[in-house]
Design a protein that fits this description.
Distance between the termini: 66 Å
Helix content: 25-40%
Radius of gyration: 24 Å
Strand order of the largest sheet: 2-1-3-4-5
CATH architecture of the largest domain: 3-Layer(aba) Sandwich
CATH superfamily of the largest domain: Response regulator
Shape: globular
Order of helices and strands: HEHEHEHEHEHEHEHEEEHHHEE
Number of domains: 2
Number of helices: 11
Strand content: 15-25%
C-alpha cells in the first residue's frame, strides 16, 4: 500500500479522534449535577431486655454513600456529577425541617430512613416534582391504602417478608406453627402480616400468644420459655420481636424441640452479610471497606434507591424527577442489584420487587419466591400485596 494511502487513513483517524475529544469536552462543559438528599431519623427504642447487638447508628447512610460512589464511577465518563446531602436528625421535627430546607435549595430527589408517620408528613409537604424513596418503613399501609404518586419503596414490606417465610414453611410442610408476638407496634405489624401469610399459604397457627413478661431472660429463660411455649404439638415457633426484647432467647428453650423462625432464628430479610451469590460478595467487600462493618437491610435499601436514580439518569441524561419516575415505571428499567434477578417497581404502589433471602446468623438457607408458587405475571408478585389486594393505583 502506498504512503499516501496510509497518510489518508491516519488523517481520518486523527480527525475522528479530534471529533470525539471535542464532543467529550462539550459534554464535560455541560456537566449534569444530580443532587440527592438523605434524611434519617430513628426514634430511641429504649432499653431492651436481651443482649441483642444494637443497630449501627449510620445504618442506611453508609449504603447511600456507597451508591453515590457507584453512580459517580459511571457518571464521570458521561459528564454527570452526583452529590449527597445527608442529615441524621435527633428528632422528627429536625428531620422534617431538614427536608424542607433541602427542598428550598432545589433538591427534589430524596432517600428517607424514618418511621411511616414521619415519611407521610414529608410526602404531604413535598411538591409535584419531588421524588421520595422509602428505605426503612415496612408498614403495609403505605403499600395498600396510604400510597402517594411520588413515593417509592426500596425496603420490602412486612408482608413481603412474611410471605417469603410462609412460602418456605409451606414448601417444607411445616404447616402448624406457634406464634409469639411482642408488645411494640412493629411487633404487631409483623405479626399481623404473618397471620395474613399463614392464611395465604395454608398454615395453621395452633397457638397465638402475646409476650407480656418483663423478666430478665438472661437469668430466667430456661424456666420461663419452656412453660410459655407448652402445647400439644407444632412444627415451628414463629417469633415477632422486631427490636429483640425476648426473641433471642427462644431458640433451644422451647417446650418441644422445634426450629425458631421469624424475627429471630431463621429470618426473612432484605439483605444480610451471608448473601454472596450473583456478584454480591464484591458489593459486600466494597461496603466493608467503606463502612468498617457489614451491610444490613437499611444500607441495602438506601443503596438500591440511589442506584435506581443513577440507572435512570444514565439512560435519560436528565435529573428531572418527573422523567426519572416515568422511566422507573417503564419496561426499559431494570435494576441490577446482586439478588439474582433484575428488579422492577410495581406500578400500582411503587414497591421495588425483589427476592427475599431467608438466613440464619451464619448462613443463607433459601431465597423466596419459590418456583412452586405461581403467578400470571411474575413470581416476584407472590411476595406482599398483589395488585388486586391493594387499593393503590398511583399510575392511574
Amino acid at each position: 500500500m502506498s504512503f499516501l494511502f496510509w497518510l489518508s487513513r491516519l488523517s481520518r483517524t486523527a480527525a475522528a479522534a479530534l471529533i470525539l475529544l471535542a464532543s467529550t469536552a462539550s459534554v464535560r462543559a455541560e456537566s449534569l449535577d444530580v443532587r440527592i438528599g438523605y434524611l434519617q431519623w430513628v426514634p430511641d427504642q429504649g432499653p431492651v431486655l436481651s443482649n441483642v447487638i444494637p443497630q449501627p447508628e449510620d445504618a442506611g447512610l453508609r449504603g447511600a454513600e456507597l451508591a453515590i460512589g457507584d453512580n459517580s464511577t459511571t457518571g464521570k465518563f458521561l459528564g454527570q456529577t452526583y452529590s449527597l446531602q445527608s442529615e441524621v436528625a435527633d428528632s422528627e421535627e429536625a428531620a422534617i425541617a431538614a427536608f424542607e430546607a433541602m427542598r428550598q435549595k432545589g433538591t427534589e430527589l430524596f432517600v428517607v430512613n424514618a418511621p411511616a408517620q414521619t415519611l407521610k408528613t414529608m410526602v404531604d409537604k413535598s411538591g409535584d416534582t419531588t421524588l421520595i424513596f422509602n428505605a426503612s418503613a415496612k408498614d403495609d399501609a403505605l403499600r395498600t391504602g396510604q400510597c402517594h404518586t411520588n413515593l417509592l419503596h426500596t425496603i420490602p414490606s412486612y408482608s413481603m417478608l412474611t410471605d417469603a417465610l410462609g412460602q418456605w414453611l409451606s414448601q417444607r410442610r411445616w404447616k402448624e406453627v406457634f406464634l409469639i408476638t411482642g408488645p411494640t407496634e412493629a411487633d404487631k405489624g409483623w405479626a399481623n402480616a404473618f397471620r395474613r401469610s399463614a392464611k395465604r399459604f395454608g398454615l395453621e397457627i395452633v397457638e397465638d400468644k402475646p409476650w407480656t413478661f418483663d423478666a430478665d431472660l438472661r437469668r430466667t429463660a430456661s424456666q420461663e420459655l419452656p412453660l410459655f411455649t407448652r402445647a400439644d404439638d407444632y412444627d415451628a415457633i414463629v417469633v415477632a420481636d422486631v427490636r429483640g426484647d425476648f426473641g433471642e432467647y427462644v431458640p433451644f428453650n422451647t417446650w418441644l424441640p422445634r426450629p425458631v423462625v421469624g424475627t429471630q432464628g431463621m429470618m426473612p430479610v432484605t439483605w444480610h452479610r451471608v448473601v454472596e451469590s450473583w456478584g454480591a460478595a464484591q458489593l459486600q467487600n466494597r461496603f466493608r471497606e467503606l463502612a468498617g462493618r457489614d451491610m444490613n437491610s437499611e444500607d441495602y435499601a438506601a443503596w438500591a434507591a440511589i442506584r435506581s436514580i443513577g440507572t435512570a439518569v444514565t439512560r435519560l441524561d436528565s435529573a428531572n424527577p418527573v422523567e426519572i419516575r416515568e422511566f422507573l415505571f417503564s419496561d426499559a428499567f431494570q435494576l441490577a442489584a446482586f439478588k439474582g434477578r433484575k428488579l422492577t417497581y410495581r406500578d400500582w404502589n411503587g414497591q421495588l420487587r425483589q427476592p427475599i433471602p431467608l438466613v440464619h446468623p451464619r448462613g443463607l438457607v433459601a431465597r423466596a419466591p419459590f418456583e412452586s408458587f405461581l403467578h400470571p405475571t411474575t413470581t416476584m408478585d407472590t411476595l406482599g400485596f398483589d395488585k388486586p389486594e391493594s387499593n393503590c393505583r398511583i399510575n392511574g
